[in-house]
Every structure is written in C-alpha cells, then in structure tokens.
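Lab meeting, action items carried over

1. Structure of the two-component assembly. Owner: GW. Status: complete.
Input record:
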Amino acid sequence: MKSNRHGLQAGKLLGIGGHYVALGAISLLMLVPFLWMLSTSLKEPAQIFVFPPEFIPSSIRLENYTEVLANTPFHLFYWNSLYIAILVTVGTVLFASIAGYAFARIPFRGRNIVFLVLLSTMMIPHEVTSIPMFLFMRMLGFINTHVPLIVLPIFGAGGIFGVFVMRQFFLGIPKELEEAAMIDGCSRWRIYWSIMLPLAKPAIATLTIFTFLTSWNEFYDPLIFINDRELMTLPLALSLFTDEVGTAWHHLMSASVMATLPLLIVFFFAQKQFIEGVSMTGLKD
Amino acid sequence: MESKLNVPLSPDKRTSGTRKKSFNREANLTGWLFISPMVIGFVTLLLGPLLLALYMSFTDWPLLGEAEFIGLENYRAIFQDAEFWTVVGNTFMFSAGLVPLNIVLALGLALLLVRKLPGIGIFRTAIFVPVMTSLIVWAIVWKYLFATDTGFINQILQMFGITGPSWLYNPKLAMPVVIVTSVLKNVGLNMVLFIAALQQVPVHLYEAARIDGASRTRQLFQITIPMISPTVFLTTLLTIIGSLKVFGQIYVMTQGGPDNSTKVLVYYIWERAFKNFEFGYASALAFVLFFIILVFTLLQWQFRKRWVFHEE
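Predicted assembly:
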C-alpha cells in the first residue's frame, strides 16, 4: 500500500518533470532566434564564421550598432514607425469609440443594417482593395507619403474591428448611468465624452495595444506606397537591408535588435494587456 | 472570449409611442453624425475600391495609358496561366502544412500550460513573444539561422558531422522551412485562445470522470476535446484564412523562389500588380483569392451562428 503510493507520487513527479522538459524545449526554440540575433549583433564580422558557434561573443563590438545608426537614417525609420502608429491608434480609438457608442446606445434608423454591412466587409482581403487604392492615392498625389499608411488602417478593417470591440463594450455598461445624465439634460456628445469614454478604459487599452502593434508591424502597405528611404517604416527598411547589406549579418542583426527591443521591454511590463490585445486578432478576420 | 461575439444584434426597443417620435429625429441625427466618419471612410476607402477592383478585373489596365474593357478575358487567362496553378498549389501546400502543425502544437502547449504549476507563466511568455514581434524581423532572423554557410542550424549539424543542405535555395526544402518559421511565429496566438477555452471547461466534469475511474487519456478525448471543439474549429478556420494571405515571410526569406517553389497567391498578386503593373490581371487574381477566402468565411459564419444557437 505504502510503496504503491510512493510509486504513484514518483510517477506524478516524473509527469511534472516531463511537463517542464517539453515546455522548456519549445520555449528555448522560441528564444534561440532572439538570443542568436543579440549574440550576432555584438560580434566581430570574423567571429560570425567561427566554428563551433559561440553564443557569448569572445569580444564585444558595439560599433555594429553605431555603424548602422551612422550609415542609415535609422532614427527616421524609427520616428516614421512611431508617429504613424500613434496617429493610427489615436484615430482608430477616437472614431471607433464614437461609432461604437452610437451603434450600442443611440436608436437611429438603419443602425442594424449599417452595422452588419460594416462587419461583413471586415473579411475583404486587403490585397483586393489595395490595387484601386494605389491608383486612387496616386491620383490624389499621396504616393510616397505617409497619408495612406495613416488613413487606410483607421477606416479599414482595423477600424471596423475597433467599432465592433467598442460597441460590445458599451453594450455591457448599465443604462441607468446614461438615463440619469439624460434627465439632467446632458447632450449625447457629453454622455459619450464624459461618462462612457472614461468607463471604457479597459476596452480602449486593449484596442490601443492591438492597433499600435498592427501598425508598428505593418508591411504590405508601406511596401506599396513608400519609395523614398527617408519615409520608410522599420519593417520595410529592414526588409530592404537584406538586399543591400547581403550577408553583413552583424549589421542586420543589430538593426533587428534595435527594432525589436523597445517593444519587448514594454511587453514584459504589460504582458497581460498585451496578450489580451494581441489575442483579439483571433477574433478578427 | 468568444462570448463577446454572441451579443444579440438588435438592442432594446423600450422607447414608447409618443416619446419615440421626437426622440427619433434627434437620435437619427446624432446617431448618423456619430457614425459618419466611419461610414464615409468605409464608402470611400473600402466599398468604392472594392467595386472599382471588380471593374478593373474586367479590364486591361496598365500603369500608364488607357484602360480597356475586355470582359472576362482576365479570368479566362488566369485559368490557362500555368504559373497561377503553381501558385495556387503552393498556397494550398503552405496551408496544408501550416494549419495542422499550428493547431496540434498550440493545443498541446495549451494543455501543458493550463495546469497551475509554479513558474509556468514564464513559458507562456516565451512562447508568446514571437506573436508580437514583427513578422519581418522574425523572417530575417530565421533566414539567417537557415543560411547555408553561416547559419546556426547548419553549424549545429556540422558539429554532428553532417553537412547541412542549402535550405532556402533548395526547391524541396524552402517551403517546409517557411512553414516551420511561420508556425513558430504564430503558434502562441492560438495557444492563448485554446488556454482561454480550456479554462472554461467546468471542473465538475473532470471530478465526475475521476470518480468513475476514467484515465487521463480518456478524460482528454471524452471531455476536454469535445468541450473545446467549437473553439478549435473556429480557430482552425481563422488560421486557414490567415494562411491563404501569407506574404511577408515569403517576401523576406525566398522572394517566391527557388524555382517558384514558394510563390504564393498574395505574392503573385503583388508581383503582377506592383512589379509588372498589370492592374487588371492582378485585380482578377485578387478576386480569385477573395472568392477562396469567402468560402471559408461563410463556413465560419454559418458555424458561429449554429454554435451560438446551440449554446443558448
């Protein structure tokens, strides 16, 4: 009896051990690319070919970073990505929340049908509309500017998804609050702006992370609309580095580290919100 | 998580007769005013372009010069375009490789991670990090890992005395490499969705099963999998739809090569539209993609509707 119990416990421990081993292996597989990227970014070019490969470089070369910063307008790529992502996020949150509020709370004519039409267009592949959009933007003289990169996501599938998210959230807020304000003679704008919007902070936070990350990582639109180097965003600039520097992996990796690190740091401080925000992608499409 | 989607569409109609009229005019006006930015944006930037794209697909539309209406000629040409069939084959091969791998791995990881063991959060974080990393950075790093001479993977193989192949320059290996890279990039997303679903399974079901002496394997196949199957099915459909639109990693890692072995639909559309500037032909190609995606989307909606009904 006693030994049997011991056997059971041993089995359980073994099971838990196996658990950790399996998880550890997969996690390592996910982290190796980052560690190798960091390691290569600090190596002398000659060290890259050293065999067997060394994870911790024997001498550290920070010039890989300064050279990239000096030889490319890296600060501009950064700035472009950052300010575009911020404008897209602010625009999306603003327009999506006000429309979401109307869809949730104002009983206007045609509300359901408009909402359904909006929702059903979310599945249109971006590649279909991007061809006429390119011609449209060319007609307006917006090729090789940031205008399409800012405007298209706000009113495209991302924005419509935002409307959906905000509407669902507003539907869950008790009506009494609003009715009381209505009796006090508050306008709908004031109800939206001073009562509903502050209450929607959790939904706004999730939508903000989702939108910011989507914009920050966006590749297809910049590829189509941007030609000048100074106007490029980080992903586009990095994708062209691969052609330009060829096998200058130490430069490519230091550029990749610089592009990735800030976001990773933010992620570690706000993991829960990030996972929530990014998981919304699973609901999109 | 899915429950968010099941909120009834028509909100309450509580407003009574006489008040309704005066209420309505103001409500109509404010309502439309509030949604107007979104609606104007939608009409000019989505609906308009969609209709224009449809028209373009019936034309020969070069970068410069006049567009010419040619009816269904583009569509006819597509079906006789040998490269198109290669591309469709590659796209389906990508999906057929990626989707099962992604779903099985995500499910396995979710089952491991749902147990409350000390330190388990670290693993979840590690597996999720690639999801929020830029696809382009991820593809660049993996291109480097799979490089023929300097790549980490071939260096490791060399330590065991194996001369590694030139992964991304071999028509047989390039696609599998892109698939594995893509699975690792996004498996964390499905994993998180599955964890959420697993946490919804009522604990008393397992307790009852344990009292009945059901083994762990039986519990998995008779309780866990059936209970989360709606989520698994929806996630699978969404993963299929996403995989049909693969582009960024192909652009960075292979540029569709070698020998067109990784050229997928969106890459082909991009190439025809923005490298060759054959806008008419590319639009027709895009509508073929649209149609394929539409089939899966309708399937997903149908399923969602039935499932919601079932739940209620």
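2. GW to write a short summary for the group page. Key points so far: Chain B has two domains: 18-46, 82-311. The first helix of chain B runs from residue 17 to 56.
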